[in-house]
C-alpha cells in the first residue's frame, strides 16, 4: 500500500506573512498592551528587526490598538490579533485593519473566516490530527501551543511528517536562550510572550528584550547550522 506524500496537502501561504517571517520569524505577543502605548512599543520592535506584531484580544481595547498600530507601522509589518476565539472576532479584526488571526485552538470556522477575509491564519495545534485538519482549512502557520508542554521531541516528530514548507511555530515559554533545540528540531519561528513584553514595560525595555531575542535567534541558528 502506497502512503500519499504529505507535500500533496494544499498549501498557499499568505504572501505578507510569508515575507515578514522570512525577514524575521519572531512574533511579538503584546498581551495587555494599551492603545496609548502601542505605537512606541511597535516602533521599538520594528527598530530591533521584528516584522510580526500580535495584539491578543484579551488586552484592553484590542481593536483600537490594532487600528492604531496598523496605521503607524510600515506596510511590510504584519499586524495581527491573538486569542481569536470566534468568527465575529475575525470580522472585527478585519474592520480594524488587521492582517493576521492567531488562535489558541484550531476551530475550522475561524480559520476559514480568516481566509475568506484575506487574512493570514495561525491556529493553535497540539496534535498531528489538529495540524493536518488546520492545513486542510487553509492555515498559513501551525502554532504549536503550548510549546513547553509539547517540547522538542514532539516538534522533531511533527517535522518528519508536516511538509517542510509549512511553518511550525512554537509558542509558550520561549526565551532568548532556549530556542536552539527547537531550531535544530525544525522550528520555523517563535511566538514570544511575557519574556518579550509584560504590561508596564516601557518601549525601551521592550526594545532591549527584542534585541536579546534577535541575538538569541542568531546564536541558535549558528549552533544548529541553519
UniProtKB/TrEMBL annotation:
UniProt pathway annotation: Carbohydrate acid metabolism
Alphabetized NCBIfam families for the sequence: PRK09140.1 (NF006600)
Species for this entry: Pararobbsia silviterrae
Record's keyword annotation contains Oxidoreductase: no
Classification via SUPFAM superfamilies: Aldolase
Record's keyword annotation contains Lyase: yes
PANTHER family: 2-DEHYDRO-3-DEOXY-6-PHOSPHOGALACTONATE ALDOLASE-RELATED (PTHR30246:SF1), 2-KETO-3-DEOXY-6-PHOSPHOGLUCONATE ALDOLASE (PTHR30246)
InterPro entries on file: Aldlse_KDPG_KHG, Aldolase_TIM
Family: Belongs to the KHG/KDPG aldolase family.
Record protein name field: 2-dehydro-3-deoxy-6-phosphogalactonate aldolase
Complexes and interactors: Homotrimer.
Pfam families to which the protein is assigned, alphabetical: Aldolase
Record's keyword terms, sorted: Carbohydrate metabolism, Lyase
Any one GO MF annotation of this record: lyase activity
Amino acid at each position: 500500500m502506497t502512503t500519499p506524500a504529505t507535500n500533496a496537502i494544499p498549501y498557499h501561504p499568505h504572501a505578507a506573512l510569508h515575507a515578514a517571517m522570512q525577514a524575521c520569524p519572531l512574533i511579538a505577543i503584546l498581551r495587555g498592551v494599551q492603545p496609548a502605548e502601542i505605537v512606541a512599543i511597535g516602533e521599538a520592535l520594528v527598530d530591533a528587526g521584528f516584522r510580526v506584531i500580535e495584539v491578543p484580544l484579551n488586552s484592553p481595547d484590542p481593536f483600537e490598538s490594532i487600528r492604531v498600530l496598523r496605521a503607524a507601522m510600515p506596510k511590510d509589518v504584519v499586524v495581527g490579533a491573538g486569542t481569536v476565539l470566534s468568527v465575529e472576532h475575525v470580522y472585527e479584526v478585519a474592520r480594524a485593519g488587521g492582517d493576521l488571526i492567531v488562535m489558541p485552538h484550531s476551530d475550522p470556522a475561524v480559520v476559514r473566516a480568516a481566509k475568506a477575509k484575506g487574512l493570514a491564519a495561525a491556529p493553535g495545534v497540539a496534535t498531528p490530527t489538529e495540524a493536518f485538519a488546520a492545513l486542510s482549512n487553509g492555515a498559513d502557520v501551525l502554532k504549536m501551543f503550548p510549546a513547553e508542554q509539547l517540547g522538542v521531541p514532539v516538534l522533531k516528530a511533527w517535522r518528519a511528517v508536516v511538509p517542510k514548507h509549512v511553518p511550525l511555530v512554537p509558542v509558550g515559554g520561549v526565551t532568548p536562550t532556549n530556542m536552539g533545540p527547537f531550531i535544530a528540531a525544525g522550528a520555523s519561528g517563535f511566538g514570544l510572550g511575557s519574556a518579550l513584553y509584560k504590561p508596564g514595560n516601557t518601549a525601551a525595555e521592550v526594545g532591549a528584550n527584542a534585541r536579546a531575542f534577535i541575538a538569541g535567534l542568531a546564536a541558535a541558528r549558528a549552533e544548529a547550522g541553519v
